[in-house]
Amino acid sequence: MKAWYYIPHDPYLLWGFIIGAWVFSIAGFFGLQLLPTRARRPLVVGVTFVAGLIFALEFFLPTGIVKVGSIRLVQPENKNFLSPALEPIRNLVQIVVGLSLGLGVFSLLRLHTRNLLQRRVGWYNSLVLILCLVAMAVLAAWHQFGEKDIVQPPKWVENSYEILFTYTWSPLDATMFSMVAFYIFSAAYRAFRIRSIESSVLMFTAMIVMVGSVPFAYWLSESLHVPQEGFWQFLRLEIAKDWILKQLNAPAIRAIEFGVGIGGLAMALRLWLSLERGLGVGR
Amino acid sequence: MAVLEPQRVEMNIWQRMLNIDRRILYLLLWLTMSAVMLFVRGQMPDVITSPVKDLYQTIENLPPDKMVILSSNWGPGTIGENRPQLEAILEHLIRRRLKFAVVSFFEPQLSIMSYRYTSQITEKHGYEYGKDWVHFGFVPSIELGIKGMNESFVEAIKRDYKNTPIDQIEMMKNFRSMVDVSLVVDITPSGTVGAWISFVRKGTLVGYCPTSVMAAEGYTYLKSKQLVGMLTGAKGAYEYELLLKTSGYASRLINTITASHLLIVAAILFGNFCLLMARLTRKGEEQHA
Description:
The complex is a heterodimer. Chain A is mostly helical. Chain A is 72% helix and 2% strand. Chain A has a two-stranded antiparallel ribbon with strand order 1-2. Chain B contains eleven helices and six strands. Chain B is α/β, with parallel strands linked by helices. In chain B, strand 4, helix 8 and strand 5 form a beta-alpha-beta unit. The chains are: A mainly alpha, B alpha/beta. At the A-B interface, helix 3, helix 5, helix 6, helix 7 and helix 8 of A face helix 2, helix 6, helix 9 and helix 11 of B.
Protein backbone atom coordinates (compact mmCIF):
# COMPACT_ATOMS: atom_id res chain seq x y z
CA MET A 1 0.00 0.00 0.00
CA LYS A 2 1.41 3.36 -1.00
CA ALA A 3 2.27 5.71 1.86
CA TRP A 4 0.02 8.76 2.09
CA TYR A 5 2.85 10.89 3.43
CA TYR A 6 5.78 12.31 1.49
CA ILE A 7 9.15 10.54 1.71
CA PRO A 8 12.09 12.59 0.39
CA HIS A 9 14.55 10.45 -1.60
CA ASP A 10 17.08 13.14 -2.50
CA PRO A 11 19.78 13.07 0.26
CA TYR A 12 20.02 16.89 0.46
CA LEU A 13 16.27 17.19 0.73
CA LEU A 14 16.23 14.41 3.37
CA TRP A 15 18.84 16.28 5.48
CA GLY A 16 16.81 19.46 4.98
CA PHE A 17 13.74 17.66 6.32
CA ILE A 18 15.67 16.25 9.30
CA ILE A 19 17.12 19.66 10.24
CA GLY A 20 13.74 21.28 9.64
CA ALA A 21 12.06 18.71 11.92
CA TRP A 22 14.66 19.41 14.63
CA VAL A 23 14.18 23.17 14.40
CA PHE A 24 10.40 22.78 14.39
CA SER A 25 10.47 20.39 17.39
CA ILE A 26 12.78 22.61 19.47
CA ALA A 27 10.79 25.74 18.59
CA GLY A 28 7.56 23.87 19.39
CA PHE A 29 8.95 22.68 22.72
CA PHE A 30 10.01 26.15 23.84
CA GLY A 31 6.85 27.65 22.39
CA LEU A 32 4.79 25.26 24.55
CA GLN A 33 6.76 26.29 27.63
CA LEU A 34 5.92 29.95 26.97
CA LEU A 35 2.21 29.29 26.61
CA PRO A 36 -0.03 29.62 29.67
CA THR A 37 -1.42 26.33 31.05
CA ARG A 38 -4.94 27.18 29.84
CA ALA A 39 -3.74 27.45 26.25
CA ARG A 40 -1.35 24.47 26.49
CA ARG A 41 -3.95 22.04 27.77
CA PRO A 42 -6.26 21.81 24.71
CA LEU A 43 -3.22 21.41 22.45
CA VAL A 44 -1.76 18.49 24.44
CA VAL A 45 -5.21 16.91 24.91
CA GLY A 46 -5.89 17.18 21.17
CA VAL A 47 -2.55 15.63 20.14
CA THR A 48 -3.00 12.78 22.69
CA PHE A 49 -6.52 12.10 21.41
CA VAL A 50 -5.52 12.05 17.72
CA ALA A 51 -2.48 9.82 18.42
CA GLY A 52 -4.65 7.33 20.33
CA LEU A 53 -7.39 7.48 17.70
CA ILE A 54 -5.01 6.42 14.92
CA PHE A 55 -4.07 3.26 16.84
CA ALA A 56 -7.65 2.42 17.81
CA LEU A 57 -9.05 2.95 14.30
CA GLU A 58 -6.18 1.06 12.65
CA PHE A 59 -6.90 -1.91 14.92
CA PHE A 60 -10.70 -1.91 14.67
CA LEU A 61 -11.43 -0.74 11.12
CA PRO A 62 -12.03 -3.55 8.60
CA THR A 63 -9.28 -4.55 6.19
CA GLY A 64 -9.40 -5.80 2.60
CA ILE A 65 -12.39 -5.04 0.38
CA VAL A 66 -15.14 -3.23 2.32
CA LYS A 67 -18.67 -2.52 1.12
CA VAL A 68 -20.66 0.22 2.84
CA GLY A 69 -23.96 0.64 1.01
CA SER A 70 -23.10 1.51 -2.57
CA ILE A 71 -19.49 2.44 -1.71
CA ARG A 72 -16.87 -0.25 -2.37
CA LEU A 73 -13.51 0.40 -0.75
CA VAL A 74 -10.67 -1.69 -2.17
CA GLN A 75 -7.82 -2.20 0.33
CA PRO A 76 -5.04 -4.81 0.44
CA GLU A 77 -5.56 -7.88 2.63
CA ASN A 78 -4.89 -7.29 6.36
CA LYS A 79 -4.57 -3.52 5.77
CA ASN A 80 -6.78 -0.48 5.92
CA PHE A 81 -6.12 3.13 4.97
CA LEU A 82 -4.45 3.84 8.33
CA SER A 83 -2.00 0.92 8.20
CA PRO A 84 0.78 2.88 6.40
CA ALA A 85 0.87 5.26 9.39
CA LEU A 86 2.31 2.49 11.56
CA GLU A 87 5.76 2.54 9.98
CA PRO A 88 6.52 6.21 10.79
CA ILE A 89 5.10 5.61 14.29
CA ARG A 90 7.49 2.67 14.65
CA ASN A 91 10.39 4.90 13.67
CA LEU A 92 9.15 7.57 16.06
CA VAL A 93 9.05 5.06 18.92
CA GLN A 94 12.70 4.15 18.23
CA ILE A 95 13.64 7.85 18.32
CA VAL A 96 11.67 8.46 21.52
CA VAL A 97 13.28 5.41 23.21
CA GLY A 98 16.72 6.72 22.19
CA LEU A 99 15.94 10.21 23.46
CA SER A 100 14.50 8.92 26.75
CA LEU A 101 17.68 6.87 27.29
CA GLY A 102 19.75 9.99 26.66
CA LEU A 103 17.54 11.98 29.02
CA GLY A 104 17.98 9.34 31.75
CA VAL A 105 21.76 9.37 31.35
CA PHE A 106 21.81 13.20 31.40
CA SER A 107 19.67 13.30 34.55
CA LEU A 108 21.84 10.69 36.30
CA LEU A 109 25.07 12.48 35.36
CA ARG A 110 23.73 15.86 36.49
CA LEU A 111 22.71 14.51 39.91
CA HIS A 112 25.94 12.63 40.57
CA THR A 113 28.24 15.32 39.19
CA ARG A 114 26.62 17.72 41.65
CA ASN A 115 27.17 15.19 44.48
CA LEU A 116 30.81 14.94 43.47
CA LEU A 117 31.52 18.66 43.06
CA GLN A 118 29.81 19.62 46.30
CA ARG A 119 31.47 16.72 48.18
CA ARG A 120 28.13 15.53 49.59
CA VAL A 121 27.90 12.46 51.86
CA GLY A 122 28.90 9.36 49.85
CA TRP A 123 30.41 11.40 46.98
CA TYR A 124 32.84 8.58 46.23
CA ASN A 125 29.87 6.35 45.26
CA SER A 126 28.90 8.98 42.69
CA LEU A 127 32.46 8.96 41.38
CA VAL A 128 32.38 5.17 40.94
CA LEU A 129 29.00 5.43 39.19
CA ILE A 130 30.21 8.09 36.75
CA LEU A 131 33.42 6.18 35.97
CA CYS A 132 31.52 2.91 35.40
CA LEU A 133 28.87 4.64 33.28
CA VAL A 134 31.41 6.35 31.03
CA ALA A 135 33.64 3.26 30.74
CA MET A 136 30.74 0.94 29.92
CA ALA A 137 29.16 3.37 27.45
CA VAL A 138 32.40 4.05 25.56
CA LEU A 139 33.59 0.43 25.46
CA ALA A 140 30.14 -1.00 24.60
CA ALA A 141 29.65 1.51 21.77
CA TRP A 142 33.15 0.81 20.43
CA HIS A 143 32.54 -2.96 20.63
CA GLN A 144 29.13 -2.68 18.95
CA PHE A 145 30.57 -0.62 16.11
CA GLY A 146 33.16 -3.36 15.71
CA GLU A 147 30.48 -6.08 15.63
CA LYS A 148 28.64 -4.14 12.93
CA ASP A 149 31.90 -3.82 10.90
CA ILE A 150 31.82 0.00 11.11
CA VAL A 151 35.22 0.26 12.86
CA GLN A 152 37.89 -2.25 13.88
CA PRO A 153 38.35 -1.91 17.68
CA PRO A 154 41.82 -2.66 19.13
CA LYS A 155 42.35 -5.81 21.22
CA TRP A 156 42.39 -3.95 24.54
CA VAL A 157 38.90 -2.58 23.84
CA GLU A 158 37.52 -6.08 23.21
CA ASN A 159 39.21 -7.41 26.36
CA SER A 160 38.03 -4.52 28.53
CA TYR A 161 34.48 -4.87 27.20
CA GLU A 162 34.51 -8.62 27.95
CA ILE A 163 35.73 -7.92 31.51
CA LEU A 164 32.97 -5.37 32.09
CA PHE A 165 30.05 -7.06 30.31
CA THR A 166 30.69 -10.80 30.54
CA TYR A 167 32.72 -11.05 33.73
CA THR A 168 31.29 -8.20 35.80
CA TRP A 169 27.81 -7.09 34.78
CA SER A 170 26.41 -10.53 33.87
CA PRO A 171 27.47 -12.30 37.12
CA LEU A 172 26.32 -9.31 39.21
CA ASP A 173 22.87 -9.37 37.57
CA ALA A 174 22.62 -13.16 37.94
CA THR A 175 23.70 -12.91 41.60
CA MET A 176 21.03 -10.31 42.36
CA PHE A 177 18.32 -12.64 41.04
CA SER A 178 19.71 -15.81 42.60
CA MET A 179 19.64 -14.21 46.04
CA VAL A 180 15.84 -14.57 45.88
CA ALA A 181 16.29 -18.33 46.43
CA PHE A 182 17.89 -17.65 49.83
CA TYR A 183 15.09 -15.28 50.86
CA ILE A 184 12.46 -17.79 49.70
CA PHE A 185 14.12 -20.53 51.77
CA SER A 186 14.24 -18.34 54.86
CA ALA A 187 10.66 -17.13 54.32
CA ALA A 188 9.39 -20.69 53.75
CA TYR A 189 10.84 -21.75 57.10
CA ARG A 190 9.52 -18.74 59.02
CA ALA A 191 6.25 -17.76 57.37
CA PHE A 192 4.59 -20.93 56.04
CA ARG A 193 2.85 -21.88 59.28
CA ILE A 194 -0.37 -23.75 59.94
CA ARG A 195 -2.37 -21.10 61.77
CA SER A 196 -5.79 -21.48 60.10
CA ILE A 197 -7.64 -23.78 57.67
CA GLU A 198 -6.90 -21.38 54.77
CA SER A 199 -3.17 -21.26 55.50
CA SER A 200 -3.10 -25.08 55.82
CA VAL A 201 -4.79 -25.51 52.41
CA LEU A 202 -2.37 -23.00 50.87
CA MET A 203 0.63 -24.72 52.43
CA PHE A 204 -0.28 -28.25 51.33
CA THR A 205 -1.16 -27.08 47.81
CA ALA A 206 2.16 -25.26 47.54
CA MET A 207 4.00 -28.35 48.75
CA ILE A 208 2.27 -30.60 46.19
CA VAL A 209 3.14 -28.16 43.37
CA MET A 210 6.74 -27.81 44.57
CA VAL A 211 7.42 -31.53 44.88
CA GLY A 212 5.32 -32.36 41.80
CA SER A 213 7.44 -30.00 39.71
CA VAL A 214 10.67 -31.98 40.09
CA PRO A 215 11.64 -35.51 38.93
CA PHE A 216 11.57 -36.69 42.56
CA ALA A 217 7.73 -36.86 42.36
CA TYR A 218 7.83 -39.33 39.46
CA TRP A 219 10.51 -41.38 41.16
CA LEU A 220 8.48 -41.49 44.41
CA SER A 221 5.26 -42.50 42.62
CA GLU A 222 7.06 -45.23 40.70
CA SER A 223 8.80 -46.51 43.83
CA LEU A 224 5.47 -46.71 45.68
CA HIS A 225 3.80 -48.34 42.62
CA VAL A 226 1.03 -45.74 42.47
CA PRO A 227 -1.19 -46.52 39.44
CA GLN A 228 -0.96 -44.22 36.41
CA GLU A 229 -4.67 -44.49 35.57
CA GLY A 230 -8.00 -44.50 37.39
CA PHE A 231 -8.98 -42.62 40.52
CA TRP A 232 -5.80 -43.48 42.44
CA GLN A 233 -3.63 -41.72 39.85
CA PHE A 234 -4.29 -38.50 41.79
CA LEU A 235 -2.02 -39.87 44.51
CA ARG A 236 0.84 -39.35 42.06
CA LEU A 237 2.24 -35.93 42.94
CA GLU A 238 3.08 -35.01 39.34
CA ILE A 239 -0.53 -35.68 38.26
CA ALA A 240 -1.95 -33.87 41.31
CA LYS A 241 0.29 -30.88 40.47
CA ASP A 242 -0.95 -30.83 36.86
CA TRP A 243 -4.55 -30.99 38.05
CA ILE A 244 -4.00 -28.08 40.46
CA LEU A 245 -2.35 -25.94 37.77
CA LYS A 246 -4.86 -26.71 35.01
CA GLN A 247 -8.14 -27.01 36.92
CA LEU A 248 -7.70 -24.68 39.90
CA ASN A 249 -4.99 -22.19 38.96
CA ALA A 250 -5.91 -21.53 35.30
CA PRO A 251 -9.53 -20.37 35.95
CA ALA A 252 -8.33 -18.15 38.82
CA ILE A 253 -5.62 -16.58 36.63
CA ARG A 254 -8.15 -16.10 33.82
CA ALA A 255 -10.52 -14.29 36.20
CA ILE A 256 -7.68 -12.05 37.39
CA GLU A 257 -6.66 -11.31 33.80
CA PHE A 258 -10.24 -10.37 32.91
CA GLY A 259 -10.25 -7.94 35.83
CA VAL A 260 -6.85 -6.53 34.91
CA GLY A 261 -7.93 -6.24 31.26
CA ILE A 262 -11.07 -4.29 32.11
CA GLY A 263 -9.08 -2.09 34.50
CA GLY A 264 -6.46 -1.52 31.79
CA LEU A 265 -9.14 -0.59 29.27
CA ALA A 266 -10.64 1.94 31.70
CA MET A 267 -7.18 3.37 32.41
CA ALA A 268 -6.36 3.56 28.69
CA LEU A 269 -9.60 5.45 28.06
CA ARG A 270 -8.81 7.90 30.86
CA LEU A 271 -5.33 8.50 29.44
CA TRP A 272 -6.60 8.80 25.87
CA LEU A 273 -9.26 11.33 26.86
CA SER A 274 -6.77 13.14 29.17
CA LEU A 275 -8.97 12.59 32.19
CA GLU A 276 -5.98 11.34 34.18
CA ARG A 277 -4.17 13.95 36.25
CA GLY A 278 -0.47 14.64 35.99
CA LEU A 279 -0.11 14.31 32.22
CA GLY A 280 1.96 17.45 31.96
CA VAL A 281 -1.06 19.52 30.99
CA GLY A 282 -1.33 21.50 34.21
CA ARG A 283 -3.74 21.04 37.08
CA MET B 1 18.99 7.09 86.97
CA ALA B 2 17.92 3.51 86.99
CA VAL B 3 19.41 1.35 84.29
CA LEU B 4 16.98 -1.12 82.80
CA GLU B 5 18.36 -4.63 82.70
CA PRO B 6 17.59 -6.36 79.39
CA GLN B 7 14.91 -8.92 80.07
CA ARG B 8 16.16 -12.43 79.45
CA VAL B 9 13.52 -14.72 78.06
CA GLU B 10 14.14 -18.39 78.63
CA MET B 11 13.52 -20.27 75.39
CA ASN B 12 13.29 -24.00 75.01
CA ILE B 13 14.92 -25.86 72.13
CA TRP B 14 11.82 -25.60 69.86
CA GLN B 15 11.48 -21.85 70.36
CA ARG B 16 15.19 -21.47 69.64
CA MET B 17 14.75 -23.48 66.46
CA LEU B 18 11.86 -21.21 65.45
CA ASN B 19 14.06 -18.13 65.93
CA ILE B 20 17.09 -19.60 64.21
CA ASP B 21 19.52 -17.11 62.65
CA ARG B 22 18.64 -16.68 58.97
CA ARG B 23 22.33 -16.88 58.04
CA ILE B 24 22.33 -20.53 59.16
CA LEU B 25 19.45 -21.17 56.74
CA TYR B 26 21.33 -19.43 53.93
CA LEU B 27 24.41 -21.53 54.67
CA LEU B 28 22.35 -24.73 54.70
CA LEU B 29 20.88 -23.96 51.28
CA TRP B 30 24.27 -22.99 49.85
CA LEU B 31 25.95 -26.15 51.19
CA THR B 32 23.16 -28.42 49.91
CA MET B 33 23.16 -26.90 46.42
CA SER B 34 26.96 -26.89 46.18
CA ALA B 35 27.20 -30.51 47.35
CA VAL B 36 24.57 -31.68 44.84
CA MET B 37 26.20 -29.68 42.03
CA LEU B 38 29.66 -31.07 42.79
CA PHE B 39 29.04 -34.67 43.81
CA VAL B 40 25.70 -35.93 42.44
CA ARG B 41 25.94 -37.47 38.98
CA GLY B 42 23.14 -38.83 36.77
CA GLN B 43 19.50 -37.81 36.77
CA MET B 44 16.24 -39.27 38.02
CA PRO B 45 13.80 -40.47 35.37
CA ASP B 46 10.98 -38.05 34.74
CA VAL B 47 7.56 -37.87 33.16
CA ILE B 48 7.21 -35.59 30.11
CA THR B 49 4.33 -33.16 30.64
CA SER B 50 1.82 -32.56 27.84
CA PRO B 51 2.75 -28.87 27.12
CA VAL B 52 6.38 -29.96 26.49
CA LYS B 53 5.30 -32.91 24.30
CA ASP B 54 2.99 -30.60 22.32
CA LEU B 55 5.74 -28.06 21.58
CA TYR B 56 8.12 -30.85 20.59
CA GLN B 57 5.52 -32.38 18.29
CA THR B 58 4.72 -28.99 16.74
CA ILE B 59 8.38 -28.39 15.85
CA GLU B 60 8.65 -31.96 14.60
CA ASN B 61 5.77 -31.31 12.16
CA LEU B 62 6.82 -27.83 10.93
CA PRO B 63 7.13 -27.43 7.15
CA PRO B 64 10.80 -27.13 6.03
CA ASP B 65 10.10 -24.24 3.63
CA LYS B 66 9.05 -21.83 6.39
CA MET B 67 11.13 -20.16 9.10
CA VAL B 68 10.80 -19.99 12.89
CA ILE B 69 11.18 -16.86 15.04
CA LEU B 70 12.72 -17.07 18.51
CA SER B 71 11.73 -14.08 20.62
CA SER B 72 14.51 -14.10 23.23
CA ASN B 73 13.94 -11.48 25.93
CA TRP B 74 16.01 -12.64 28.87
CA GLY B 75 19.13 -11.37 30.60
CA PRO B 76 21.62 -12.76 33.12
CA GLY B 77 19.03 -12.59 35.93
CA THR B 78 17.08 -15.55 34.51
CA ILE B 79 19.94 -17.30 32.72
CA GLY B 80 19.40 -20.46 34.81
CA GLU B 81 15.90 -20.93 33.40
CA ASN B 82 15.89 -19.28 29.97
CA ARG B 83 19.29 -20.38 28.64
CA PRO B 84 18.49 -24.13 28.80
CA GLN B 85 15.16 -23.41 27.06
CA LEU B 86 16.89 -21.49 24.25
CA GLU B 87 19.51 -24.21 23.85
CA ALA B 88 16.96 -27.05 23.81
CA ILE B 89 14.77 -25.34 21.19
CA LEU B 90 17.82 -24.44 19.06
CA GLU B 91 19.05 -28.02 19.23
CA HIS B 92 15.71 -29.24 17.87
CA LEU B 93 15.49 -26.59 15.12
CA ILE B 94 19.03 -27.38 13.97
CA ARG B 95 18.36 -31.14 13.99
CA ARG B 96 15.39 -30.53 11.72
CA ARG B 97 17.52 -28.13 9.57
CA LEU B 98 14.88 -25.41 9.95
CA LYS B 99 15.86 -21.82 9.27
CA PHE B 100 15.23 -19.35 12.08
CA ALA B 101 15.54 -15.72 13.18
CA VAL B 102 16.16 -14.43 16.71
CA VAL B 103 14.76 -11.11 17.92
CA SER B 104 14.91 -9.31 21.29
CA PHE B 105 12.62 -6.62 22.67
CA PHE B 106 12.77 -4.10 25.54
CA GLU B 107 16.47 -3.77 26.39
CA PRO B 108 19.45 -3.62 23.97
CA GLN B 109 21.66 -5.87 26.12
CA LEU B 110 19.14 -8.72 25.79
CA SER B 111 19.96 -8.93 22.08
CA ILE B 112 23.67 -9.22 22.95
CA MET B 113 22.91 -12.20 25.22
CA SER B 114 20.69 -13.96 22.69
CA TYR B 115 23.20 -13.38 19.85
CA ARG B 116 26.07 -14.81 21.92
CA TYR B 117 24.33 -17.97 23.07
CA THR B 118 22.74 -18.63 19.68
CA SER B 119 26.12 -18.13 17.95
CA GLN B 120 27.74 -20.66 20.32
CA ILE B 121 25.17 -23.34 19.51
CA THR B 122 25.01 -22.68 15.76
CA GLU B 123 28.81 -22.64 15.39
CA LYS B 124 28.98 -26.00 17.14
CA HIS B 125 26.52 -27.49 14.62
CA GLY B 126 27.92 -25.75 11.54
CA TYR B 127 24.87 -23.53 11.07
CA GLU B 128 25.91 -20.51 9.04
CA TYR B 129 24.84 -16.94 9.89
CA GLY B 130 22.90 -15.32 7.06
CA LYS B 131 22.25 -18.63 5.30
CA ASP B 132 20.67 -20.75 8.03
CA TRP B 133 19.86 -18.23 10.71
CA VAL B 134 19.77 -14.51 11.32
CA HIS B 135 19.52 -12.14 14.30
CA PHE B 136 17.10 -9.22 13.95
CA GLY B 137 18.76 -7.36 16.84
CA PHE B 138 16.92 -5.16 19.31
CA VAL B 139 13.40 -3.85 18.61
CA PRO B 140 12.12 -1.31 21.19
CA SER B 141 8.34 -1.80 20.91
CA ILE B 142 7.02 -5.36 20.84
CA GLU B 143 3.50 -4.49 19.64
CA LEU B 144 4.68 -2.28 16.77
CA GLY B 145 7.49 -4.71 15.98
CA ILE B 146 5.09 -7.64 15.60
CA LYS B 147 2.59 -5.60 13.56
CA GLY B 148 5.41 -4.45 11.30
CA MET B 149 6.77 -7.99 10.84
CA ASN B 150 3.28 -9.16 9.90
CA GLU B 151 3.62 -6.92 6.82
CA SER B 152 7.32 -6.91 5.95
CA PHE B 153 10.62 -7.80 7.63
CA VAL B 154 12.49 -5.33 5.43
CA GLU B 155 10.31 -2.39 6.54
CA ALA B 156 9.93 -3.41 10.20
CA ILE B 157 13.47 -4.56 11.00
CA LYS B 158 15.47 -2.75 8.30
CA ARG B 159 18.92 -4.00 9.46
CA ASP B 160 20.03 -7.11 11.34
CA TYR B 161 22.26 -7.37 14.42
CA LYS B 162 25.36 -6.94 12.24
CA ASN B 163 23.93 -3.84 10.56
CA THR B 164 23.32 -5.64 7.25
CA PRO B 165 20.15 -4.53 5.42
CA ILE B 166 17.56 -7.32 5.72
CA ASP B 167 16.99 -7.50 1.95
CA GLN B 168 20.72 -8.22 1.43
CA ILE B 169 20.75 -11.29 3.70
CA GLU B 170 20.70 -14.49 1.65
CA MET B 171 18.30 -16.39 3.89
CA MET B 172 15.80 -13.53 4.03
CA LYS B 173 15.29 -13.54 0.25
CA ASN B 174 12.83 -16.41 0.72
CA PHE B 175 11.15 -15.00 3.81
CA ARG B 176 9.35 -11.66 3.40
CA SER B 177 6.94 -11.38 6.32
CA MET B 178 5.16 -13.37 9.04
CA VAL B 179 3.29 -15.19 6.26
CA ASP B 180 6.54 -17.15 5.85
CA VAL B 181 6.84 -17.89 9.58
CA SER B 182 5.35 -21.16 10.83
CA LEU B 183 6.10 -20.78 14.55
CA VAL B 184 7.15 -18.15 17.09
CA VAL B 185 8.73 -19.34 20.35
CA ASP B 186 8.77 -16.69 23.07
CA ILE B 187 11.60 -17.30 25.57
CA THR B 188 11.01 -14.75 28.27
CA PRO B 189 10.87 -13.98 31.99
CA SER B 190 8.21 -11.28 31.44
CA GLY B 191 4.68 -11.08 30.03
CA THR B 192 5.57 -10.71 26.33
CA VAL B 193 3.60 -13.71 25.13
CA GLY B 194 0.33 -11.74 25.38
CA ALA B 195 1.61 -9.35 22.70
CA TRP B 196 2.50 -12.26 20.37
CA ILE B 197 -0.92 -13.85 20.87
CA SER B 198 -2.73 -10.54 20.32
CA PHE B 199 -0.82 -9.15 17.36
CA VAL B 200 0.81 -11.93 15.35
CA ARG B 201 -1.02 -12.73 12.13
CA LYS B 202 -3.57 -15.55 12.08
CA GLY B 203 -1.96 -18.83 11.08
CA THR B 204 1.39 -18.37 12.84
CA LEU B 205 1.67 -20.71 15.83
CA VAL B 206 3.01 -19.47 19.18
CA GLY B 207 5.04 -21.50 21.70
CA TYR B 208 6.01 -20.24 25.16
CA CYS B 209 9.12 -20.72 27.32
CA PRO B 210 8.60 -18.76 30.55
CA THR B 211 10.40 -18.88 33.87
CA SER B 212 8.69 -21.13 36.43
CA VAL B 213 7.00 -18.24 38.25
CA MET B 214 5.44 -16.97 35.00
CA ALA B 215 4.23 -20.39 33.82
CA ALA B 216 0.96 -20.23 35.78
CA GLU B 217 -0.30 -17.59 33.32
CA GLY B 218 0.57 -19.81 30.36
CA TYR B 219 -1.97 -22.51 31.30
CA THR B 220 -4.91 -20.24 30.40
CA TYR B 221 -3.57 -19.86 26.84
CA LEU B 222 -2.76 -23.58 26.55
CA LYS B 223 -6.35 -24.50 27.35
CA SER B 224 -7.67 -22.07 24.75
CA LYS B 225 -5.14 -23.45 22.16
CA GLN B 226 -3.63 -19.98 21.68
CA LEU B 227 -0.32 -21.56 22.66
CA VAL B 228 0.81 -24.77 21.01
CA GLY B 229 3.07 -25.78 23.89
CA MET B 230 5.13 -24.57 26.83
CA LEU B 231 8.42 -25.31 28.58
CA THR B 232 8.15 -24.40 32.27
CA GLY B 233 11.53 -23.03 33.36
CA ALA B 234 14.62 -25.24 33.48
CA LYS B 235 12.44 -28.26 34.34
CA GLY B 236 10.59 -27.85 31.02
CA ALA B 237 13.93 -27.61 29.22
CA TYR B 238 15.06 -30.81 31.00
CA GLU B 239 11.94 -32.64 29.78
CA TYR B 240 12.65 -31.33 26.28
CA GLU B 241 16.22 -32.65 26.49
CA LEU B 242 14.80 -36.04 27.49
CA LEU B 243 12.64 -35.96 24.35
CA LEU B 244 15.66 -34.98 22.26
CA LYS B 245 17.67 -37.74 24.00
CA THR B 246 20.46 -35.29 24.75
CA SER B 247 22.15 -34.12 27.93
CA GLY B 248 22.48 -30.35 27.89
CA TYR B 249 22.51 -27.39 30.26
CA ALA B 250 19.13 -28.30 31.85
CA SER B 251 20.28 -31.84 32.65
CA ARG B 252 23.20 -30.38 34.58
CA LEU B 253 20.84 -28.16 36.61
CA ILE B 254 17.96 -30.53 37.36
CA ASN B 255 19.51 -32.26 40.40
CA THR B 256 20.21 -28.89 42.05
CA ILE B 257 16.65 -27.72 41.35
CA THR B 258 15.26 -30.96 42.82
CA ALA B 259 17.43 -30.61 45.92
CA SER B 260 16.41 -26.98 46.49
CA HIS B 261 12.69 -27.80 46.11
CA LEU B 262 12.93 -30.70 48.55
CA LEU B 263 14.93 -28.63 51.02
CA ILE B 264 12.30 -25.87 50.97
CA VAL B 265 9.51 -28.43 51.58
CA ALA B 266 11.57 -29.97 54.39
CA ALA B 267 12.05 -26.49 55.89
CA ILE B 268 8.29 -25.85 55.82
CA LEU B 269 7.56 -29.18 57.50
CA PHE B 270 10.32 -28.77 60.09
CA GLY B 271 9.23 -25.18 60.86
CA ASN B 272 5.67 -26.38 61.52
CA PHE B 273 6.90 -29.31 63.60
CA CYS B 274 8.91 -26.90 65.77
CA LEU B 275 5.87 -24.64 66.15
CA LEU B 276 3.73 -27.58 67.25
CA MET B 277 6.34 -28.80 69.72
CA ALA B 278 6.84 -25.27 71.12
CA ARG B 279 3.09 -24.97 71.71
CA LEU B 280 2.85 -28.39 73.36
CA THR B 281 5.87 -27.69 75.57
CA ARG B 282 4.44 -24.31 76.65
CA LYS B 283 1.06 -25.89 77.40
CA GLY B 284 2.78 -28.58 79.46
CA GLU B 285 4.78 -25.96 81.39
CA GLU B 286 1.63 -23.94 82.11
CA GLN B 287 -0.17 -27.03 83.39
CA HIS B 288 2.84 -27.93 85.50
CA ALA B 289 2.97 -24.40 87.01
